[in-house]
Amino acid sequence: MTSRELARIATAVENGAPLPAGLPEGEGLIVGITGPPGAGKSSLADAITVELRKRGKTVAIVAVDPSSRATGGAILGDRVRMSRHHGDEGVFIRSMATRGMSGGLARTTRSLARLFRGAGFDFVLIETVGVGQDEIGIAGEADVTVVTLTPGMGDDVQAIKAGIMEIADLFVINKADRPGAEQTERDVRAMLSLGHTDAPVLRTVAIDGTGVPAVVDDLLLRKKKARVAGEVFEIDHLGIAVRSIDEALKFYRDQLGMGLASRETVAHEKTHVAMLPAGESRVELLEATDGDSTIAKFIEKRGPGLHHVAMRVSDLASVTARLEAAGARLLGEPRKGAGGHTYVFVHPGSTGGVLWELIQE
């Protein structure tokens, strides 16, 4: 798709629209760049982009800016710093406002990152707002989290170690040409020696590119390993067995305020199903239509409750082959379900007590 088409879709997603139907999972690496205010996150993201472009990689950047008090939109300071990429079709930059969200992210940051990865970008960089020690939302959204620090932090390293210091996959000491860079690196490595993490520690001067190739080498290696590992698991839905969907909706819809997307009857499973979206996932309420259905037997034995966890995978055949080779017990062969997806169940005895459903769209 063209940059204009992508921008139009991104705007719709940021305003609450779902991701486009049939969007590929993509193989791009989502990289979160976070750290305290003033650490040079924008300059680092810009320098990483320059180096990736030299190596023929495409890059999408999600720059999360503070909300403007006047308009509620993004202040766009980060985008201004990356203006040299204007006109480069291999780089797409999207600024978004936090709109009151904490954790250094905006509400739809994750959806935009998935959109850009699905659009085929090799790397998606998420630059957070300058964050404090407990604002660690990026760790749940990115494949790799880069924590950016600066020389002269001193005791600040100790002060924030219980927060963002523990989510780092890679530490970058930026502005390393300033006095105190060696001491900051020693402080970080001393923290690492206590067992918080085994993340590498690199030094950069992002404004002139010093040290940035080593950062990109690390990211490319991580992308290669992720591709070899072969799979990203995401929760598709939680299946909850209930005696009555109408009774259950009094809680989920009427009290929690969750929307009801659809209701249907799956005849071959002898089950009524109600679907309630929950972010990128959903809750499925399952009611038996017959006394000998799987749901009826489950409730008879265990009572209402969590029946299964459904995980989305991109290559079901590869995942099931790996599970079977490792001795996991599959309940039958993969088969087609409603909507054309393929699925298979994994016995609770292999998963620690919870029935798993693996789904490939």
Notable traits:
seven-stranded parallel β-sheet; Rossmann fold; 2,3-Dihydroxybiphenyl 1,2-Dioxygenase, domain 1; single chain; 361 residues; 26% strand; 15 strands; eight-stranded mixed β-sheet; alpha/beta
**What is the name of the CATH superfamily of the largest domain?**
P-loop containing nucleotide triphosphate hydrolases
Task: State the order of secondary-structure elements, H for helix, E for strand.
Answer: HEHEHEHEEHEHEHEHEEEHEHEEHE
The helicity comes to: 25-40%
CATH class group of the largest domain: Alpha Beta
Provide the number of structural domains: 2
Cα separation of the termini: 22 Å
Our estimate of the beta-strand percent is: 25-35%
The main pleated sheet reads as:
8 strands, mixed
CATH architecture field of the largest domain? 3-Layer(aba) Sandwich
Which spans have pLDDT < 50 for at least 5 consecutive residues?
A: 68-75
Strand order of the largest sheet: 9-10-11-8-12-15-14-13
Number of E-type strands: 15
Number of helices: 11
- Give the mean pLDDT: 84
Shape: elongated
CATH names the topology of the largest domain as Rossmann fold
Structural class: alpha/beta
Q: How would you classify the quaternary structure?
A: single chain
Describe this structure in words.
The protein has 361 residues and is an alpha/beta fold. The chain has two domains: 3-229, 3-Layer(aba) Sandwich (Rossmann fold), CATH 3.40.50.300; 234-360, 2,3-Dihydroxybiphenyl 1,2-Dioxygenase, domain 1 (Roll). The protein has eleven helices and 15 strands. The protein has helices at residues 3-14, 41-54, 77-81, 109-118, 156-160, 181-193, 212-229, 245-252, 294-302, 316-325, 348-351; strands spanning 29-34, 59-65, 91-97, 123-127, 144-149, 170-173, 201-203, 234-241, 262-266, 271-278, 281-288, 305-312, 330-336, 342-346, 355-360. It has an eight-stranded mixed beta sheet. A seven-stranded parallel beta sheet has the order 3-2-4-1-5-6-7, sandwiched between helices. Helix 1 packs antiparallel against helix 4 and helix 2 (41-54) packs across helix 7. The longest helix is centred in the middle third of the chain and has 18 residues, at 212-229. The chain is elongated, with a radius of gyration of 23 Å. The protein starts with a helix and ends with a strand.
